[in-house]
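1st attempt posting a full record on here, be nice pls
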Amino acid sequence: MKLSHLAKASLMLSLSAITVLNASANQDTQLEEVVAAGQKINQSAAKSQLKVNSLTEQVQTKLQQFNTVTKELDGLNVYNQEMQAQLDNQITELAQLAKSMEEVSVIERQVSPLMARMISTLENFVKLDVPFLPQERSKRLNDLNTMMVRADISVAEKFRRVLEAYQVEVDYGRTIEAYSGLLTLEGQEMDVDFLRVGRVSLIYQTRDGSQLGQWSESTNQWQTLSQDYRLGVNKALRIARKQLAPDLIMVPLTNIQAKL
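the predicted structure (as tokens):
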């Protein structure tokens, strides 16, 4: 059976339409596959980016930690250098202290005899000196001798007290002082006022002012003074007791009389 030209054309058109439809269907399927693949790639890229971001944050954190630790390490190195310098200085000081302690032991063995000689010299000086404040000065010397045999007082403290006693004796030579005491005159003990002007004059006056006397270095005894000195002595006593302002006083000088 033979088809007419029209039938052939229709058949060809139908076949072409079917082919186009099939091609279009295939293209849609391929497009969907491409889109799906693209979505998978995008999802994979997003996941990869998240991993990259996470790793970047971790790297930044580790880097900050590293920088912090590095700074701490630098600080510790500087601190260790300072501590080492201090330690070296302390070791040097310890060596010097050890040497000083050895020298102190030698000095202590030498200082004790020196102090004993100083006290003995001071005792002789007081015996030869003008006899003022005998009880006070004698007690000071006795306290020094007692102190020297005590083990609970350091050598430094002993030496300080010996020097202090010397300083007190030195001060006597440049001060004026009035004090009361007992004095034996012509076999009778009397209450008198003493006036000390440095070490150049030591005078007594009875409380009623009836008798005046002066220590003589040439005879080592008391000598009677004229009543002409009474006003000067009374003025000097009041100045020494701070009852009058400092002023010029007229009193006899023991040392000058002794030299004369």
